[in-house]
Amino acid sequence: MKFLRKAWSALYHIWYYIVVVCSILVILPFILLTSQSDKTYSNFFWWARRWSQLILVCMGYHWVVKRQGKLAKGQTYVLIANHASELDIMLMYLMVRSPFVFIGKKELAQKPLFGYFYKRTNILVDRASLASKRDALKHAAKKLDEGTSVCIFPEGGIPEPQWLLAPFKAGAFKLAIAAQLPILPITFPDNKRHFADFWDGGYPGRLRATVHQPISTIGLTEADIPALSAQCYQLLHTELVAYGCTGKSTFAAS
Questions:
Q1: Rounded to an integer, what distance in angstroms lies between the CA atom of residue 203 and that of residue 194?
Q2: Could you report the per-residue pLDDT of 135-157, keeping only the tens digit for each?
Q3: Residue 216, CB half-sphere, CA atoms under 13 Å: how many?
Q4: 3-class DSSP assignment, residue 156
């Protein structure tokens, strides 16, 4: 039984990578044209959303979104979510219709085809380099100032499987407070179960998500970063537990 589970997991992941590559090839002329400059990024973002839909449908997923409030038209946000799976990127594109960019680890740039467009249209960071982290936050602050939202997974990457929610890094909250822009928290309870690591299973089905009410940072200062981080951590943690998710967690932030 264990062998069959691992064999299915491997085949399902191989199918995912085939779908990713083939879907990029299908829309390649359009994303090549629209990824050339910031002026055409909104068009690229539209194609990125179509690409995400195509991948999830081909993987046998359907998504159910619970929205706790209506987002203000034209509002710029710092988006955060729990990070549990590669599906988080595709599903995040479908949660927010207005253009945003990711701050992601530089290793993603090494993925065939996907990496080429990811590094051209998002902000890459070397998590082992303080200078890279500072540069990424400066770049993100510039994007926010220009009116483009920024998405950061505050756990700093996909945590080990035993974690329900790993400790948060401070970057997202520092960025939001510096720009005096609201944080938009999003919870993904099913992505880890439906698409974990290569040998750890995966299967089609329903992907649920909660888009929470935005959290204002007006009037907050750097001294409020720990409290804001803890507030967001508690919100996502509570929602994950309400969905029936289990695992290790801590309210400590770094």
A1: 5
A2: 999 999 999 999 999 999 999 98
A3: 3
A4: coil
Which pair of structure tokens corresponds to residue 103? Answer: 């701050």
The DSSP bridge pattern shows strands 248-249 and 163-165 to be parallel
Residues 21, 95: Cα–Cα separation, whole Å: 23
**Nearby residues of 132 by Cβ (< 8 Å), 6 or more positions away:** 106, 125, 126
Q: What is the pLDDT of residues 201-251, one digit of tens each?
A: 789 999 999 999 999 999 999 999 999 999 999 999 999 999 999 999 886
- pTM passes above 0.85: yes
Q: Which DSSP string corresponds to 190-213?
A: SHHHHB-STTS-B--EEEEEEEPP
Q: Which of 93, 112, 110 lies closest to 102, judged by CA?
A: 93
Residue 5 half-sphere exposure toward CB, CA atoms < 13 A: 8
Distance of alpha carbon 75 from alpha carbon 147, whole angstroms: 8
What does the DSSP 8-state code read for residue 181? -
Q: Is 68 helix (H, G, I), strand (E, B) or coil?
A: coil
Amino acid letter, 203: Y
Distance CA 221, CA 174 (A): 9
Q: Which tokens in the block code for residue 109? A: 């740039």
Element spanning 14, H or E? helix 2-26
**CB of 117 closer than 8 Å to CB of 31:** yes
- Angle CA 227–232–233, to nearest 5: 95
- How far is Cα 101 from Cα 123, in angstroms, rounded to an integer? 7
Domains and CATH numbers, the chain: 2-249 (3.40.1130)
C-alpha 78/C-alpha 176 separation (Å) is: 6
Q: Quote the DSSP letter at residue 72.
A: P
